[in-house]
Design goal:
- The complex is a heterotrimer of chains A (419), B (332) and C (345).
- Chain A has 11 helices and 14 strands.
- Chain A is of the alpha/beta class and 419 residues long.
- Chain A folds into 2 domains: 195 residues, Response regulator (Rossmann fold, 3-Layer(aba) Sandwich); 174 residues, 3-Layer(aba) Sandwich (Rossmann fold).
- Chain B has 332 residues and is mainly α.
- Chain B contains 15 helices and 4 strands.
- Chain C has a single domain, classed as ABC transporter involved in vitamin B12 uptake, BtuC (Orthogonal Bundle).
- A two-stranded antiparallel ribbon of chain C has the order 1-2.
- Chain C is mostly helical and 345 residues long.
- The radius of gyration of chain C is 22 Å and the shape is globular.
- Chain C contains 13 helices and 2 strands.
- The chains are: A alpha/beta (419), B mainly alpha (332), C mainly alpha (345).
- Chains in contact: A-B, A-C, B-C.
- Chains B and C meet through helix 4, helix 5, helix 11, helix 13 and helix 15 of B and helix 4, helix 6, helix 11 and helix 13 of C.
């Protein structure tokens, strides 16, 4: 009886030990390109994670013959939207799967946590995690890090100027309490205050907040507008609850507050809200129209910025691999060549600056209910109302002066007009 | 009895030597996982001092890991302290901070017993989590704190194998110290308290003080575990102090066998193997984890370490008519 | 910060407290009757929300989703209590379930590592069937630890189940974040002297009030309630005077699961439903129980109210220490009075 019990347990134990002892490190085939991919496939950010993976996967499916003929091995790991899980999974990809590069990571805080994992063995291509400082003051620390997405404050710089042009004087900012929130709001504040506006209050609900009950009533009554920076499920809840609390002020926000990962699920209360980002599913170009239609046919929903940047990232990797005829040129060379890539992507022209961050168009977008691309139903779209062409990460500011100031944080820029 | 004790010590020593020799020669991912497991198992052993030897089941042990880890990270990033020889000071600080926290928490918690102790340690653990999660200016809140690089003093801990040996050293010393502790007269009085507190009181023992000191010692080891964990993971975040981390530690101790120290280590290794390794192979790994827990709790009164004992019992009972009830009520 | 601020914040706190009451009261009753801390209570909350989603997706009816979800999870709770936490008389069923579960895992493992043996559903079922039968007879010969007498083991068992539920939910409902959308009418606000009160929060408060009153009536005015109270006070004595405590604990466990699931459906509208929510709501439920006192319904109500208000004002006024202000009083109360403010010794 207990013998049998032992017998029953022993395979388990043995299996565990064996599994630990075995090291399935395949010999690196000359033609194999191993790409590790980190996205939250479970948890509150799962919907976003799905768009990330789908975008990348779609490019791979569409270009089976691409990458210079290399056999692409695409390994997805669930980072759960948590920086420390992401680090564990990245190490697994590097040490266990021996990937040439790992891509993705959702949150900016995850980006900061992942950058130290990058090394000569495996480079880190940040397609989503927009952690500003990695391509600014921390650039030299991480030579094997490069970005194909954006830096958090990149769209905020032109957007702050736009807000001045609309005649807003006093704005209340409410944003997720983590690195990305600080950087998006910080960039907006710097730009908005540089042209005469005032940020009169900053409210920081924790990342993942669903119940904004405690925060909404604290919004100052004398502001002209509200700037929001929401991520994941926060994006859906905030405008709903803001409307239910009787808000009459205009609402503007960071791109992720109204991105297409959540837009289709939103109600009419968001119509008229304005945001800034380097992509909108409603960019009216033939290239984008084709992408939206193909993506929607394949995955049943409109692509979000998360889909587009990852599709484009795969395209950029393809570009380099094709140039090398399918042979991975080594991490130093790969970074160098990727840095030099210039493509006409779905979202517009993209190149990468000398600090390894993309230069791209920033679109100011207004949520409208209308028909687009021949779909016969009225739907919510992020209509582009203004385009700032070829914006780099410093926007209207001078690079040298910019880099002398600290990275945007909870306390920088200081809230001069808060009291 | 003495002989079997010697054999047990020999087995443990042999296993330790085996780990020290074999692990550095495996692939680097395995080295990383084993390092993690060793660092975490110090916490689990510290919990076992409370659970297995004192009879106090704590649901807030992660708090001490958290304090050690955050102390390390804050000192390293804000004060650039602990990245050279002063790493040893950080070890001391980590232990002292956690022990101090345990000294405060102990004042509140020690009076409670059984399920009430479970509840109050949960509450105290959540206090620490609350601060880690929201006290943004100190802990970085949700962002966590990234440690950029491990200490370097003569040897470079950035090398995973070197770091493995360091953690292994701390682990072995901790195991030895805790073993000496539980075998000491003090440890024996703890076991006496676990068995029957009232009797110990009548015998003139200050049971409160005994439990209090055990609580502080456990906290100190928790802090050590935290310092090592911070450098193992490279990032410290509120995830390290959430309720589930405490629950994990408790389950690992019970899985291996409470009151054995080594059992907790085995439990830690199994859970980490399932969670970090099996999860990369099959999507249904969590069922295995759940099943392991449920089966252990239902069928193994003294955890995996109790299996040999059960076999012996079974052998002794052989020939007699099968009486499952008898085994169930047999002392474990 | 004017009067309006305090009014709306208090209202928000009370409505959050109403939700917490639903989760906390069940946990409190379970503790009172069985003296165990049910760590899978958060899972009931989450599963309730998921089942409600399925009902809404298939029938489109939110009103129907509430009772269906709550009753389904009550059944889950009932089975868990009767088959695992206390299994006298039903050991064969428990063994059968464990055998089946293990067999499926072994089957999956074979399929994963020795795919030659198992391919196709028919073969899989046959293999699992054979293993199940074998394991069943094996399990019958292995004795079980008497966990009825060991609260710590019962607590740990509930964690084991929490893990299993987590994975099951992931497999059935994927890892996505869902929202339960209440009927349009409830998404409006009522305006009283310039203050907007979201109707959904009003609905939450009324639901909790209604449930609270019903529970109170049942506990105070019925024989069943009297038996429950007697068991909470002294289970042994209650048994002595002829109360069927086994039936009571079954009933209470199911009721607790029912209430938690109800909370999940209602809370799902503004908390969302996603993996991980189970262990996020659990400590809050504990705060309610601990502050209010374990096993006391009135205590749970007051505890829920206090936690709801403390949480809301903490977040609005002292964001940096908002959770500390919630749990520190909880620890202090426990230190002074281990059974909570209104708990009976």
């Amino acid at each position: 009886m207990t013998n049998s019990l032992l017998r029953r347990l022993s395979p388990l134990l043995l299996g565990g030990c064996l599994a630990l002892a075995m090291s399935p490190s395949q010999p690196a085939g000359a033609e194999e390109l191993r790409i590790g991919y980190l996205a939250p496939t479970t948890g509150i950010f799962a919907a976003v994670g799905k768009d990330m993976v789908d975008g990348f996967q779609m490019y791979l499916d569409d270009h089976k013959k691409g990458f210079g003929g290399a056999d692409v091995k695409f390994i997805v790991e669930d980072e759960q939207g948590k920086p420390d899980t992401a680090v564990t999974k990245a190490k697994k990809l590097v040490l266990q799967d021996k990937v040439h590069m790992f891509v993705g990571g959702l949150l900016a805080s995850t980006g900061y946590a992942l950058a130290p994992v990058s090394s000569k063995d495996a480079i880190y291509i940040s397609s989503v995690a927009a952690a500003d400082d990695l391509t600014q003051r921390d650039l030299a620390k991480f030579p094997y890090f490069i970005r194909t997405g954006w830096s958090s404050s990149q769209p905020s710089h032109p957007f702050g100027q736009w807000a001045c042009e609309q005649g807003y004087k006093k704005i209340v900012a409410i944003g997720a309490d983590y690195a990305f929130g600080y950087e998006v709001i910080g960039g907006f504040q710097r730009a908005f205050e540089a042209c005469g506006g005032q940020i009169v209050q900053k409210i920081w609900p924790p990342l993942g907040t669903k119940d904004f009950g405690p925060y909404i009533p604290t919004i100052k009554a004398d502001a002209d507008a509200i700037f929001t920076l929401m991520v994941g499920p926060m994006s859906l809840q905030f405008p709903k609850q803001l409307a239910a609390a009787g808000n009459k002020k205009p609402v503007i926000g960071g791109g992720t507050s109204y991105d297409e990962f959540v837009l289709p699920a939103m109600g009419d209360e968001v119509i008229g809200h304005v945001s800034a980002l380097m992509y909108s599913a409603a960019i009216d170009t033939p290239k984008n129209a084709a992408f939206v239609k193909a993506y929607r046919a394949k995955y049943g929903k409109v692509p979000s910025y998360y889909s587009e940047v990852n599709y484009t990232t795969a395209q950029m990797i393809d570009e380099v691999m094709t140039k090398n005829k399918g042979k991975y040129p080594g991490s130093d060379e790969f970074i160098k060549q990727l840095n030099a890539v210039k493509i006409d992507s779905i979202r517009g022209p993209v190149s990468i600056d000398d600090m390894r961050n993309p230069v791209q168009n920033i679109y100011i977008k207004k949520v409208e209910k209308k028909k687009m691309f021949g779909y016969d139903k009225d739907e919510l779209w992020n209509t582009v109302i203004k385009t700032y062409a070829n914006v780099n990460q410093f926007g209207q500011f001078k690079k040298d002066e910019f880099l002398k100031t600290p990275v945007y944080s909870r306390d920088f820029p200081p809230c001069k007009f808060c009291n | 009895m003495l002989k079997s004790q010697k054999i047990k010590i020999m087995i443990v020593a042999a296993a330790l030597v085996a780990i020290a020799v074999i692990v550095p020669n495996t692939n680097s991912f395995v080295i990383l996982l084993v390092t993690r497991a060793l660092a975490f198992s110090i916490l689990v052993m510290s919990l076992d001092i409370l659970l297995g030897y004192t009879g106090l089941a704590s649901l807030g042990q992660a708090a001490y890991l958290g304090v050690g880890a955050y102390a390390t990270a804050i000192l390293a990033t804000k004060y650039n302290f602990g990245l050279g020889w002063d790493f040893w000071l950080v070890i001391v600080f980590g232990i002292l901070f956690s022990a101090a926290l345990a000294a405060v928490f102990g004042l509140l918690a020690i009076r409670a017993t059984g399920v009430y102790f479970l509840m109050i340690t949960l509450a105290l653990g959540q206090c620490v989590w609350g601060l880690a999660y929201r006290w943004n200016s100190l802990t970085g809140g949700d962002n966590g704190i990234n440690l950029r690089g491990r200490p370097k003093f003569g040897i470079d801990l950035a090398n995973d194998v070197t770091f493995f040996y360091v953690v292994f050293g701390f682990f072995a010393v901790s195991l030895l110290l805790m073993y000496v502790l539980v075998r000491s007269p003090f440890g024996r009085s703890l076991s006496g308290i676990r068995e029957r507190e009232l009797r110990m009181q009548i015998l003139g023992y200050n049971t409160w003080l005994h439990k209090y000191i055990a609580f502080i010692i456990a906290g100190g080891f928790g802090g050590l575990s935290g310092v090592l964990w911070a450098h193992t993971a490279g990032i410290v975040s509120p995830e390290n102090v959430v309720l589930t981390t405490s629950v994990d530690a408790l389950l690992m101790a019970v899985l291996g066998g409470a009151g054995t120290l080594v059992g907790g280590v085995i439990g830690t290794f199994i859970v980490i193997a399932l969670r970090e390794y099996l999860s990369t192979l099959v999507p249904w790994w969590q069922y295995v984890l759940g099943a392991v827990y449920v089966l252990t709790i239902l069928y193994l009164p003294s955890g995996l370490m109790g299996i040999p004992e059960r076999i012996r019992q079974r052998r002794n009972a052989l020939g007699k008519p099968d009486d499952p009830k008898k085994l169930a009520t047999a002392p474990s | 910060m004017n009067a309006n601020f305090w009014i709306i914040q208090a209202f928000n706190g009370v409505s959050y407290g109403a939700l917490l009451f639903l989760v906390g009261s069940g946990l409190s009753l379970i503790f009172g009757v069985m003296r165990i801390v049910n760590l899978s209570h958060g899972s009931y909350f989450l599963l309730g929300g998921y089942v409600a989603l399925t009902v809404i997706w298939t029938t489109g009816s939110w009103v129907l989703a509430i009772p269906v979800a709550a009753l389904t999870i009550a059944l889950v709770g009932l089975l868990m209590e009767r088959l695992f936490l206390r299994s006298e008389g039903l050991e064969y069923l428990r063994n059968a379930i464990i055998a089946l579960g293990l067999a499926v895992l072994i089957g999956l493992a074979i399929e994963r590592w020795r795919p030659i043996i198992v391919d196709g559903w028919a073969q899989f079922i046959v293999v699992v069937g054979i293993i199940t039968v074998g394991l069943y007879f094996l399990l019958r010969r292995i004795s079980v630890v008497a966990i009825e007498a060991d609260p710590l083991r019962q607590v740990l068992l509930t964690v084991g189940f929490a893990f299993l539920f987590q994975q099951a939910a992931l497999d059935i409902w994927t890892g996505n974040n869902f929202d339960i959308n209440p009927p349009e009418a409830l998404t409006q606000s009522v305006v009283v002297s310039g203050i907007f009160f979201p109707l959904y929060r009003v609905f939450m408060i009324t639901t909790a009030l209604t449930i609270g009153v019903i529970l109170w009536l049942v506990m105070e005015k019925t024989r069943m309630g009297a038996a429950v109270r007697a068991t909470v006070d002294d289970a042994q004595m209650a048994r002595g005077v002829g109360v069927d405590t086994s039936r009571i604990s079954m009933f209470i466990f199911a009721l607790g699961a029912f209430l938690a699931a109800l909370g999940g459906v209602i809370g799902g509208a503004f908390l969302g439903i996603y993996p991980g929510l189970d262990f996020e709501i659990l400590p809050l439920a504990f705060a309610v129980v601990i502050i209010g006192g374990m096993g006391s319904l009135g205590g749970a109500a007051i505890g829920a109210l206090l936690v709801g208000l403390a949480d809301n004002f903490g977040k609005a006024l002292f964001p940096e220490v908002s959770y500390f202000t919630l749990y520190a009083p909880m620890a202090l109360i426990l230190a002074i009075k281990p059974t909570g403010l209104f708990g009976r010794e």
